[in-house]
Amino acid sequence: MACPTVADLALTRDFEVVERGSRVPSIRALPMSEEVLDQARWWERHITEVISGLPLGSAPDAMPRSEYDPAIRSLSEREAAKAAELTAAGMSGASARTVRRRRQRYQAEGIDGLVDGRAVRERTPGARQDPRVLETLLRLMSDDARRGNSASADEYRRSVGRMLDTQYGTVPLPSRSTFQRLVKMVRDQHGGARGITVIDENRIRLSRPGERVHVDTFELALPAHLARRTLRSVRITVAVDELTRMVCTLVVHTSQDGVDGPTLLARLCGPPPRRAVPDSGDGHVAVPLILPESLILDSSRMRRGREFLDACRAMGIRIERRRPVERAAEERIASRLVTLFGTELTTLTVTPSHDDVSLISWLQDRAEHWVESVWQHQPQWRLQATGDRRHATPSSVYEACAARLGWVHLPLGRHEVKRLLPSVTRQVTERGVLVKGHHYFHAELTCLRSTGPVEVRFDPYDLCQVWVRTSADAWLQVPLAMNALGQPLSRPAWRFTGTTRRALPDVPAREPTLELDSVQERLSYHAQLPVLRTPFLQEVLLLSARLAMLNRTPVGGRQGLLITGPPRSGKTTALQELGRNFAQTPVAGLPFGSAVYLRLHPADSGRTALLRLGKLVGLPPCPSMTSTAAVSEAVQQALISSETGLVLVDDAFPETSTSTNASTNAPTVEVLRFLADQVPALFVYAASVTAENSLASAHQAGQGRLAHVQAAPVPYGPDWEHLVETLDKALRLRHQQPGSLPRLAPALHHRTGGWAGAMVHLVRSASIDAILSGREEITERDFDSITV
Predict the structure, then answer these.
(1) CA dihedral (486, 491, 493, 494) positive or negative
(2) Which of 25, 319, 427, 579 could make an S-S bridge to 595, C-beta 3.0–4.6 Å?
(3) Exposed (0-12), middle (13-18) or buried (19+): which is 641, by Cβ within 10 Å?
(4) What is the largest CA-CA distance in the chain?
């Protein structure tokens, strides 16, 4: 008969907690009178009626009163109704806020949270003493109790003094009589208990996992083969249980604003993930879950802090800020964990060839595997096991605590966890939903395409899946879409330093329902009509795809592309379209990376051009004394680290035809050409020429490895007529008859000389004039007043 673990049982699809009692059961017997207990039980009946609609001990067939029915009343309304009922019964101070506080304490601590704290208040041993004194004393007395030994108060005082002098230096001890009273109080409260000698801020020994969970954030130093200039700061946030040293969760992130608080809480309280471990029987193991009772935070900032505090308050989790006295000891544990993991990364020989987002995901997965396979089974400093076992590890201490307590934590429900995750609204398309630049697809999303935008919940630190709301209480887990090569299907990265216009469809269908209503919408639409796919542009796209493939594994030197032509012949448009379509070329399945656009200034030198290019790929500013060769080396490493696959250089050569001025940018281009030979990226240069031999004299030697594409006008014929028909289908003028623009094809060719860019400019300008004048129609006379 199979006997699954609790974690495996909680991860099954049909597992559900039918009845959840107190999340933190009472461990210690509190000295209290019957009167205090009766008062707590009286409050328990009222609070359970607020929570479930029925008071504790009601008959199975009882029905809730209308003011407490959860089906028709919200929790706030039920709390207000209970406050009004108690006030009407003559109880003073029973406001809705009081009922809410007692309800939250009951859900967090059970009936212990309803007990009057003044009736069970105990005098804390050593409350006015240095906490280091009490911590050392507890350690000595617990060791003696475990061995069955005993010592006098004076012997403990001498031993504590020696240990404090060795570890901390000079620490003042209490007087002899005060120390004797302290020893007596510790013996009265703890007796000869065998357990873990860790104390909380109230100087009380911890007795169960989750009582205090420390959250710390550290910088993660990446080794040289993983470091990238685009990742200036990689951080890791770790939540460690103080009692067992178990890692409750960890998050690798790059945000300078800190980790997302509600997401961290969802990872702490949600179902534990199944991680692949080679040494386990089935290859996977479910990590034990530790629900925190108190979260001890460091001084780091946290995103969505208000939502995080509200969620912790609703779940009964106390939030504390670490005191300076406690900071050193607890930070040392998490710092040691991060340091050991950084050392583990230096021993890896595998270099993941991913973008920055995928690298962070890889580091997250690697850290989780390392914690489960190494840290949880490694003996920890000052961690003492129960019984006679030595060399205690976090996993062994957790197992001993679970065996002693007789219970384990259960995760929150899946719906409660999803409410903590960030939410976005997305439209379902044929490719699924797009979240954070990645596509997520599932076959069941097809039925949601016609329902409008849907709510999507996602973990910003886990790209494997998102959750789409399909109904009021149903969520669909949608995995990350992959391409044919098993790589994430993502939105192409395209960085452009100038102003980019919105991409329009190639040939919009002429349907009355697609006509734009307002004048402003039609003006904006016609000002950015689609770019025409001329033979020149198609040749540039095809040749660049071929050269990009050759440059990845070059035999000899790397190739480049030079685009030339007279002014306004479409060179800049070709560069922009090449950058936008770089990830959609016939070889887009391969990871060619992103594209950057650099326009050279006439006064640019080789150094300034390198610095501007380095800024585009995330290179930090170089010191002013850095040599040009060193800057070139830094830019080379930045291009490789950022996986830039396409560099577009506009205005690479001057427009004049004289040899003196034609060589103005020659040194700059030579520096870029030398850089292009060192990186697996395609460099595309655009140059304006006004004479047939303007480039031959100055750059004949440099064009040996540059494929050359010369912009040329489109002769009148089928190709020209097809371009005019494309523009005609794209027009949205109210009085323009379909097919009227192709009748003007001869006039347009004569007016523009066959240049497609000039024709688009004519049609755009004429369309705007037609809309402003109210005619909403283009005629041949409209072209006469427009300068080309």
Answers:
(1) positive
(2) 579
(3) middle
(4) 112
Q: How confident is the model at residue 29 (pLDDT cuts 50, 70, 90)?
A: very low
Among 553, 557, 598, smallest CA distance to 579 is for: 598
- Compute the average pLDDT of residues 200-214: 65
| pLDDT value, residue 13 | 61
547 contacts 553 by C-beta, under 8 angstroms: no
Instruction: With beta carbons less than 8 A apart as the criterion, state whether 492 and 584 touch.
Output: yes
Residue 271 · residue 411 · CB < 8 Å:
yes
Torsion of CA 530, 531, 533, 535, to 10 degrees: 150
Listed in sequence order, the residues at least 6 apart from 89 whose beta carbon sits closer than 8 Å to its beta carbon are: none
- Residue 614 and residue 598 in contact, taking contact as beta carbons nearer than 8 Å: no
CB atoms within 10 A of CB 35: 10
Cβ 134 vs Cβ 141: under 8 Å? no
Q: Nearest to residue 488, comparing CAs of 616, 368, 583?
A: 583
Q: Give the integer Cα–Cα distance in Å for 721 and 523.
A: 25
Helices vs strands, H then E, count in the chain: 24, 18
pLDDT of 8 reads 62
Residue 204 has a pLDDT of 41
Cα 96 to Cα 50, 83, 348, 375, 550: the distances in Å are 11, 5, 58, 47, 73
- Measure the CA–CA gap between 166 and 24, rounded to whole angstroms: 38
Which pTM was predicted?
Answer: 0.48
Contact 445, 428 (CB under 8 A): yes
Measured CA to CA, the distance from residue 724 to residue 532 in angstroms comes to 9
The two tokens of residue 387 are 């019984």
Q: Which two tokens stand for residue 88?
A: 């009407």
Give the whole-number percent of the chain exceeding pLDDT 70: 73
- Which amino acid makes up residue 175? S
Residues in Cβ contact with 394 at an 8 Å cutoff, skipping those fewer than 6 apart: 241, 244, 245, 246, 247, 375, 376, 377, 378, 380, 383
**Strands laid side by side in the 318-321 sheet:** 247-253, 235-241, 213-219, 294-297, 318-321
Closest listed residue to residue 695, CA positions, set 714, 708, 705: 708
User: Are 771 and 765 a contacting pair, CB within 8 Å?
Assistant: no
Evaluate whether 256 touches 263 at the Cβ level (below 8 Å): no
Under 8 Å between Cβ of 733 and 776 = yes
How many Cα neighbours within 13 Å face the side chain of 474?
4
**If residue 235 lies in a helix (H) or strand (E), which one and from where to where?**
strand 235-241
Identify residue 252 by its one-letter amino acid code: V
DSSP state of 112: G
Return all residues near 122 (Cβ < 8 A) that are at least 6 apart.
Answer: 31, 189
Tokens of 368: 């989780």
Q: Measured between alpha carbons, how far is 330 from 547 in angstroms, rounded to an integer?
A: 56
CA 138 vs. chain centroid, Å, equals 43
Per-residue model confidence (pLDDT) at position 82: 92
Q: Dihedral, CA atoms, 486, 488, 490, 496, nearest 10 degrees? A: -90
- Cα separation, 360 vs 364, in Å, equals 6
* Terminal alpha carbon distance of the chain: 85
Other beta carbons within 10 Å of 373? 17
User: Which two three-digit tokens encode residue 102?
Assistant: 């007692």
